[in-house]
Amino acid sequence: MEDELLAQRREKLDRLRADGIDPFPHAYPGVETIASVRAAHEGLADGEETEVSHRVAGRIAARRGQGKMAFIDLVDRSGRIQLQARLDVLGEEVHQRLLGLDLGDLIGVDGTAFMSRRGELTLRVDGFAVLAKSLRPPPDKHHGLADVETRYRQRELDLMANDESRDVFIARAKIISAIRRTLDDDGFVEVETPTLVSLYGGALAKPFTTHFNALHQDMYLRIATELYLKRLIVGGLERVYELGKNFRNEGLSPRHNPEFTMIEWYEAYADYLDETVRVEQVIRAAAEAVDYQGELKVYEPWARITLRDAVLEQTGIDVLEHRERDALAAAIGDRLPTDGRTWPQLVDDLLGEFVEPTLQQPTFLLDYPVELSPFAKRHREIEGLTERFEAYICGIEIANAFTELNDPDDQRARFEAQARYAGEGDEEAQPYDESYVRALEHGMPPTGGVGVGIDRLTMILTGRDTIREVILFPALRD
């Protein structure tokens, strides 16, 4: 059956060419969006005619009627409009050619606007052009494209069939624009740093490894932009941000994709408490951009709780009273696997298992142990902690922030500690980066820094359950 349909469409393609019509022209200038055409005639009464002509273009989504008069639904990114095809306007040859086109074909139309008696804005077709002959039938628009594998692997079909999917990715673009605009208006400079690096860093994660043939050396896809951006703070840029892709060679889940989008920003003379306010400001702007009206309190000041208190509240374990690995493992007992886990890994396990699921409304989790935070400045009041927070919504971490460590000697000691954790089997430990320490030795001012996950934020503000719904082409097994 499919082969027969494809053959029929091929025959129509050949027929167009035989009639001297280019089924794939180079351009079609002067097109208006369907939404703008609709806006221009909002006050038109039922049955009212105009003499206003418009040029629109899009994909044929439906067709009704034959003979002397038929109706076609045309869709573009902005919406849908009804076309009226009349034999007495187009003539026999052009009329039949238009009605002979297939669903999914792309056409351009010049037409005169009127309101049908049923109150449907319509363009009476005065002329049309084939812009691209579709050689495959489109997905069933009425039922949508439900197969998840097809939706993710052939996103073009998903966007064609499901208006809701299209709305999600338009919302994602608005979120990104709003965040950029908010930072730009506050004097931040957008920059670009390397994606292919000789030494990964800035996060606790496994990298993707590749080989640079010209240099005869292994390289890595970056796991974060942090260390380069802070070197720019050292250089005097003072407020910088980068929005782009990071890569972490880890598992797939509803919250994880190995290739993901983050924005990181750094500002001199600020600390992590300043950055809680900045995060609230940025997320509020993103929510406003998509007119978020859900139950999450993203427009209000967020809750703030320390990591120590949160773990104690949920588990009864005071991690700062169990500073040794074996003592913490004993306190955990059989609630979690502890064999082969380092002290910071056990703290992180407690956080992930017992605390994170409870953080549904926007919350800042403050003051992380130094062992979990190789780039955060030590807490100014509490020994063993750093000035770091993670931001959570719907039990999902969406941001990570520090008062940045700017003491080069302390940073060197942190790198050495990470090397010990690597020796104990922690594959995500941060490698030693001498070039970064050298940059700090030139002096970095007090600095606050934040990383926000764009994919997760989009999930939350659009009400999606999995990260694959907000990434156009997510990672999938072949």
Automatic annotation (TrEMBL):
<keyword id="KW-0030">Aminoacyl-tRNA synthetase</keyword>
<feature type="binding site">
    <location>
        <position position="390"/>
    </location>
    <ligand>
        <name>Mg(2+) 1</name>
    </ligand>
</feature>
<dbReference type="Pfam" id="PF00152">
    <property type="entry name" value="tRNA-synt_2"/>
</dbReference>
<keyword id="KW-0479">Metal-binding</keyword>
<feature type="binding site">
    <location>
        <position position="397"/>
    </location>
    <ligand>
        <name>Mg(2+) 2</name>
    </ligand>
</feature>
<keyword id="KW-0963">Cytoplasm</keyword>
<feature type="domain" description="Aminoacyl-transfer RNA synthetases class-II family profile">
    <location>
        <begin position="172"/>
        <end position="474"/>
    </location>
</feature>
<dbReference type="InterPro" id="IPR018149">
    <property type="entry name" value="Lys-tRNA-synth_II_C"/>
</dbReference>
<dbReference type="InterPro" id="IPR044136">
    <property type="entry name" value="Lys-tRNA-ligase_II_N"/>
</dbReference>
<dbReference type="GO" id="GO:0004824">
    <property type="term" value="F:lysine-tRNA ligase activity"/>
</dbReference>
<keyword id="KW-0436">Ligase</keyword>
<keyword id="KW-0460">Magnesium</keyword>
<keyword id="KW-0547">Nucleotide-binding</keyword>
<protein>
    <recommendedName>
        <fullName>Lysine--tRNA ligase</fullName>
        <ecNumber>6.1.1.6</ecNumber>
    </recommendedName>
</protein>
<feature type="binding site">
    <location>
        <position position="397"/>
    </location>
    <ligand>
        <name>Mg(2+) 1</name>
    </ligand>
</feature>
<dbReference type="InterPro" id="IPR006195">
    <property type="entry name" value="aa-tRNA-synth_II"/>
</dbReference>
<keyword id="KW-0067">ATP-binding</keyword>
<dbReference type="InterPro" id="IPR004365">
    <property type="entry name" value="NA-bd_OB_tRNA"/>
</dbReference>
<dbReference type="InterPro" id="IPR002313">
    <property type="entry name" value="Lys-tRNA-ligase_II"/>
</dbReference>
<comment type="similarity">
    <text>Belongs to the class-II aminoacyl-tRNA synthetase family.</text>
</comment>
<dbReference type="Pfam" id="PF01336">
    <property type="entry name" value="tRNA_anti-codon"/>
</dbReference>
<dbReference type="InterPro" id="IPR045864">
    <property type="entry name" value="aa-tRNA-synth_II/BPL/LPL"/>
</dbReference>
<keyword id="KW-0648">Protein biosynthesis</keyword>
<dbReference type="InterPro" id="IPR012340">
    <property type="entry name" value="NA-bd_OB-fold"/>
</dbReference>
<comment type="subunit">
    <text>Homodimer.</text>
</comment>
<dbReference type="InterPro" id="IPR004364">
    <property type="entry name" value="Aa-tRNA-synt_II"/>
</dbReference>
